[in-house]
Design goal:
The complex is a heterodimer of chains A (362) and B (289). Chain A has 8 helices and 20 strands. Helices cover 24% and strands 31% of the residues of chain A. A 6-stranded mixed β-sheet of chain A has the order 6-7-8-3-9-10, sandwiched between helices. In chain A, strands 13-12-11-14-20 form a 5-stranded antiparallel β-sheet. In chain A, a hairpin with a 2-residue loop joins β1 and β2. Chain B has 2 domains: 44 residues; 208 residues, MetI-like (MetI-like fold, Orthogonal Bundle). Chain B contains 13 helices and no strands. Chains A and B meet through β6 and α2 of A and α8 and α9 of B. Chain B: It is found in: Cell inner membrane; Cell membrane.
């Protein structure tokens, strides 16, 4: 059990800096997810916490101790890798016991810890198998078991579910969540999948190009993104962005719409962007809503339908509607934007603060 | 429609059988050419002198069959010593090549450091330069080190000779190893040496077998360096020992062929042991492209 603090952490490879000063505090027992597009530095940051990458600047502090020069095994961490990284020549038991055996622990203690971890993950029947005799999900479970056995203060996960198929990923996601509820250990988890981030995290850290864009609970990021990047990254399908023109009286117009009142503070500048999530757009009869457009594509998933509506922009506006909507491609539909669900971004991509916080966020 | 399809299918099948037959004909021809000298050596080692010269290609008959060659070789006492010398030199050199080669390859593929690429090129440069070009210098060096007529001199030379290819093949292969597994071992608290011995070595076993066979054969068969560096009676190797049966005026062919037949044995045994791993090693992308 330990907290984790990053103070102005930087990473340079030769002359290129890839992490530009990250400050972050992870509380004891918290589940924090690093999310961002590939190349944003999330894995590098995790490897720096683990001690696998040298820290070029700043401090990594675990449980109050500065860890920059401490070897990975002495940091009280355990790591689960994307490619499972099981030792192919050892059976499941051997894999799980390896670190403890190496540390010279007592045999009985090793056995007890391995059996307990195997019990938590349902691995008992597989203890004598070799990694190549296991399925992908079982391998990942062994990799997690190996981490549990070490009884770490912090678990580090590096995209652990990326190699699994979709169904298994959902199942393992739930298992990891239950594991966290059971062990109550600090966990840091890296993923590029925002759904994983939303479902697992106590707090999400959104990274881009080696900088933190925003830190917050999943709902904070969803309802109050700090900028356009976070707004577009969190949520699926992604948020619609429309060019908006201020009318000088605190309202904006989009294309040929009537002026819209967006409930944000201090909106300034003239090159504004209006954002609305697909699930918040409401369908109306043509001519009755905020805007009118022609349906290009209707993706029917059964329970819900994604309508791609052409408004004359390069990208169509996506509407997440009920599965029972009857609109077909070629038909004209009206779109209503509920004011409370609107986001307004300035020319730099910064979001203007909403006047009221969302009801679910304290 | 139907008939067209079946004729086309039949033609396709015939064509495939034809191609396969062609491929196998070429392979068989090559195999015959490659094995022929070995078979001749072994066959004639079981004949007497007359048999060898009258009908070199014939099987041993009741008249020509003789094991006098083997008797000569085994009774001449020294031959077992030469055999032992060859074994010692080959095994120790192989061990050193594999150990140092794998360690160097591990360093080159695993660690980022200045001049990494340059060092890699330097280490495998020896592939292009035949070590025999340096014979005079090597001899001088060995004389200065008082290593002439010792097995150590041979072991040193063969290790140097085998390292470039070993490093080249092993580096290429080690680059394909998962980085996660080594990082995982680091998190588990293994030292860099133990990562190499306990995690990396088991993973590269098939390629090690390949490199072992490739490196062993030229060492076992070499005549040049034993002749120059270790020609004393106590340090002769098999290939050099055979020379004692080749005189200026007479050659004891039965003995020569018998000793060569015995000398082939270890290579055959090694190949039989490693053939499976050898093939998987060659096809495991040891050398890309």
């Amino acid at each position: 059990m330990a907290d984790l603090v990053l103070q102005d952490v930087r990473k340079r490879f030769g002359k290129t800096e890839v992490i530009h000063g990250v400050d972050l505090e992870v509380k004891d027992g918290e589940f924090v997810v690093f999310v961002g597009p590939s190349g944003c530095g999330k894995s590098t940051l995790l490897r720096m916490i683990a001690g696998l990458e040298e820290v070029s600047g700043g401090d990594v502090v675990i449980g109050g101790e500065r860890m920059n020069e401490i070897t990975p095994s002495d940091r009280g961490i355990a790591m689960v890798f994307q490619s499972y990284a099981l030792y192919p020549h050892k059976d499941v038991y051997g894999n799980m016991a390896f670190a403890l055996r190496h540390a010279g622990e007592d045999k009985a203690l090793i056995d007890e810890r391995v059996r307990k971890a195997a019990d938590i993950l349902g691995l008992e029947p597989l203890l004598k198998r070799r990694p190549k005799e296991l399925s992908g999900g079982q391998r990942q479970r062994v990799a997690i078991g190996r981490a549990i056995v070490r009884d770490p203060a912090i678990f580090l996960f590096d995209e652990p579910l990326s190699n699994l198929d979709a169904a298994l990923r959902v199942q393992m996601r739930v298992e990891i969540l239950r594991l966290h509820q059971r062990l109550k250990t600090t966990m840091v988890y890296v993923t590029h999948d925002q759904v994983e981030a939303m479902t697992l995290a106590d707090r999400i850290v959104v990274l881009r190009d080696g900088r933190i864009e925003q830190v917050g609970t999943p709902l904070e990021l969803y309802h109050h993104p700090k900028n356009r990047f976070v707004a577009g990254f969190i949520g699926s399908p992604r948020m619609n962005f429309l060019t908006a023109t201020p009318d000088g009286q605190g309202r904006v117009t989009v294309r040929d719409s009537a002026p819209i009142e967006v409930p944000v503070r201090d909106a300034t500048g003239d090159a504004l962007t209006l954002g609305i999530r697909p699930e918040h757009v409401e369908l109306t009869a043509p001519g009755q809503g905020t805007l009118t457009g022609e349906v290009l594509v209707a993706e029917r998933l059964g329970g819900e339908t994604f309508l791609h509506v052409d408004l004359g922009d390069a990208e169509p506006l996506v509407v997440k509607a009920d599965g029972g909507v009857t609109q077909k491609p070629g038909e004209t539909v009206g779109l209503r934007f509920p004011p409370a669900a609107l986001h307004l971004f300035g020319s730099e991509g910064q979001a203007f603060e909403h006047r009221e916080r969302h009801g679910l966020i304290a | 429609m139907n008939t067209v399809d079946t004729t086309r299918a039949r033609r396709g099948r015939m064509g495939r059988i034809g191609t396969a037959a062609g491929v196998h004909a070429v392979l068989l021809t090559y195999t015959l050419i490659a094995i022929f000298p070995v078979v001749i050596v072994v066959l004639n080692s079981f004949k007497n002198r007359r048999g060898i010269f009258t009908e070199p290609l014939a099987l041993p008959t009741a008249e020509t069959f003789s094991t006098e060659g083997y008797a000569t070789v085994l009774n001449q006492g020294n031959f077992l010593l030469y055999y032992g010398n060859s074994l010692i030199v080959t095994i120790v050199s192989l061990f050193l090549i594999l150990l140092c080669g794998a360690m160097a390859a591990h360093a080159l593929s695993e660690y980022r450091f200045k001049l990494n690429t340059l060092l890699g090129v330097y280490l495998i440069l020896g592939i292009m330069v035949p070590i025999r070009l340096g014979t005079v210098a090597i001899l001088q060096l060995m004389v200065d080190l008082s290593l002439v007529n010792t097995l150590v001199s041979l072991i040193l030379v063969y290790t140097a000779q085998g390292l470039p290819v070993a490093i080249f093949i092993l580096t290429e292969f080690m680059r394909t190893l998962s980085r996660d597994i080594k990082d995982c071992a680091r998190v588990d608290g293994l030292s860099e040496y133990r990562i190499f011995f306990e995690v990396v070595l088991p993973l590269i076993r098939p390629v090690l077998a390949t490199v072992a066979v490739f490196s062993m054969i030229p060492i076992w068969n070499d005549l040049w360096f034993p002749l120059i560096l270790a020609s004393s009676d106590a340090t002769k190797t098999v290939t050099l020992g055979v020379q004692q049966f080749i005189g200026q005026y007479t050659v004891n062919w039965s003995a020569v062929l018998a000793s060569l037949s015995i000398a082939i044995l270890p290579v055959l045994v090694l190949y039989a042991i490693f053939s499976r791993q050898l093939i998987s090693g060659i096809t495991a992308g040891a050398v890309k492209g």
